């Protein structure tokens, strides 16, 4: 694959800057211009100026520009996918899927922005009218992760722009190219300069303080780890910003004894090993009822053993690299500790022999729920499988975590489906489904997995303020 960087030519630095590496080879892709705290402050002021014009454009006018942006993303889908694979590592087929998924938020919110309705509330007094309006909140800032370098930006920026806000976005240090390509296409679509600004940096701490503490910024959105999210939330408190946080997950995947085991294995494969297990909603803990435990393990292991591990740009690759050496070392440590605590390695359990940041697809069995790996967000291609006897036991173990982002379970019992959906303490639940993300449904968690929702009509509200107006003297 010959990587085409024409979309980001204007952002490439031929001197110092942010160095972008390919995690499959650890080779330099390119270097891009970076921002320090002072230049980010200037970008915020530019965004405030742009807001005054953008917010006064009609919803239809904004929608037309967003639709043009959407169309350009689809026209450049293959080039964008290649950039994702090069800097993120995920297989090219998954990268193509991400481009389509990311673009879907722009298409959805281009239309949804035209339906930012208010209300007229019947007044208790004669001669008065109560009107409720939704207005754009103002300049918003966002910090996005590397594992979905396009979709995590569009999921935040599309509703913000549709509502009439402007956005300043810090992409992950490892994946700035995808973000910069999005900005280039937005400008090509006619979205005015300053409406969406991408600010790569090698100084995330100082830049993060600007994005969370600057008084001009009225809303902050973050996707990333829970510890970092808590810190950023504290930094936003000084100016009482509106905040949405999509944080860590520890998703249970429950297989009951009445499940279709073949379908459960199919769902487990795509939920666990997509992007080498580096997704916030991927299955992290597998709970399988004792009656079907052996059957599930046998079929699951057979399927995973057929995975091809390698560079995401190579044809047939199913599992690509982890993002960097630190990620590999984290997974190694978790698996090593699990083995010390009695886990059996049914498959994998070590680094892959491919050069680069690769870890073998792994299945661990004979694990007790007290094992430390049950509480960790693995973020790698490792599936620990626990055994349970009773339905109540599965629910108790599934909820035994401070996280509450996504959960999955398989059953063919309708009554059980409704009981478990109600009992699981998670913001999103997949029933007989291993993939739940879509632009039309609200994405987000409970407990320490975050606040707020992205996508769907609820996602637009995150970027608005509700204004109540009382009109008197009408009698």
Automatic annotation (TrEMBL):
The entry's keywords: Oxidation, Oxidoreductase
Name of the top EC class for this enzyme: oxidoreductase
Entry GO MF terms: succinate-semialdehyde dehydrogenase (NAD+) activity
Cross-referenced PROSITE patterns: ALDEHYDE_DEHYDR_CYS, ALDEHYDE_DEHYDR_GLU
InterPro entries attached to this UniProt entry: Ald_DH/histidinol_DH, Ald_DH_C, Ald_DH_CS_CYS, Ald_DH_CS_GLU, Ald_DH_N, Aldehyde_DH_dom, Aldehyde_DH_Superfamily, Succ_semiAld_DH
Oxidoreductase listed as a keyword: yes
A Pfam entry, by short name: Aldedh
Keyword flag Isomerase: no
Taxonomic superkingdom: Bacteria
Record: active site: 246
Ranges of residues in domain Aldehyde dehydrogenase: 18-468
EC numbers, comma separated: 1.2.1.-
Swiss-Prot/TrEMBL GO biological process terms: gamma-aminobutyric acid catabolic process
Family: Belongs to the aldehyde dehydrogenase family.
Protein known as: NAD-dependent succinate-semialdehyde dehydrogenase
Protein species of origin: Temperatibacter marinus
């Amino acid at each position: 694959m010959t990587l085409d960087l024409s979309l980001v030519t204007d952002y490439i630095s031929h001197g110092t800057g942010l160095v972008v590496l390919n995690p499959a080879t650890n080779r330099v892709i390119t270097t891009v211009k970076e921002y320090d705290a002072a230049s980010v402050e200037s970008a915020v002021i530019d965004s405030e100026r742009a807001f005054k014009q953008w917010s006064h454009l009609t919803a239809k006018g904004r929608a037309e520009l967003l639709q043009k942006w959407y169309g350009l993303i689809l026209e450049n889908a293959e080039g964008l996918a290649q950039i994702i694979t090069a800097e993120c590592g995920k297989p090219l087929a998954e990268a193509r899927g991400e481009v389509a998924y990311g673009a879907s938020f722009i298409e959805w919110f281009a239309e949804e922005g035209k339906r930012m309705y208010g209300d007229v509330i019947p007044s208790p007094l004669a001669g008065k009218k109560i009107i409720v309006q939704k207005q754009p909140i103002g300049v918003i800032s966002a910090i996005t992760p590397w594992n979905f370098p396009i979709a995590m930006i569009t999921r935040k920026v599309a509703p913000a722009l549709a509502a009439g806000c402007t956005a300043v976005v810090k992409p992950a240090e490892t994946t700035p190219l995808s973000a910069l390509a999005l900005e280039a296409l937005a400008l090509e679509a006619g979205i005015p300069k300053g409406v969406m600004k991408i600010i790569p940096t090698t100084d995330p701490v100082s830049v993060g303080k600007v994005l969370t503490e600057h008084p001009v910024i009225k809303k902050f959105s973050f996707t990333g780890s829970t510890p970092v999210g808590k810190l950023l939330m504290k930094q936003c408190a000084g100016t009482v910003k509106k905040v949405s946080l999509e944080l860590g997950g520890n998703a249970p995947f429950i297989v009951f004894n009445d499940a279709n085991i073949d379908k459960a294995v199919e769902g487990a494969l795509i939920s666990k090993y997509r992007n080498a297990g580096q997704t916030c909603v991927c299955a992290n803990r597998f709970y399988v009822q004792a009656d079907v435990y052996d059957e599930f393990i046998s079929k699951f292991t057979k399927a995973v053993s057929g995975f091809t591990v390698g560079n995401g740009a190579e044809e047939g690759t199913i599992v690509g690299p982890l993002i960097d050496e630190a990620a590999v070392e984290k997974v190694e440590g978790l698996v090593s500790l699990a083995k010390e605590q009695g886990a059996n390695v049914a498959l994998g359990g070590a680094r892959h022999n491919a050069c680069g940041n690769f870890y073998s697809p792994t299945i661990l069995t004979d694990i007790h729920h007290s094992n430390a790996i049950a509480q960790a967000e693995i973020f790698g291609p490792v599936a620990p499988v626990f055994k349970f006897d009773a339905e109540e036991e599965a629910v108790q173990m599934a909820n035994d975590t401070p996280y509450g982002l996504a959960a999955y379970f398989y059953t063919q019992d309708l009554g059980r489906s409704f009981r478990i959906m109600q009992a699981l303490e998670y913001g999103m639940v997949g029933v007989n489904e291993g993939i739940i993300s879509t632009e039309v449904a609200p994405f987000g968690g409970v407990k320490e997995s975050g606040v707020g929702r992205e996508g769907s009509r609820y996602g637009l509200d995150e970027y608005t303020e509700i204004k109540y107006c009382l009109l008197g003297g009408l009698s």
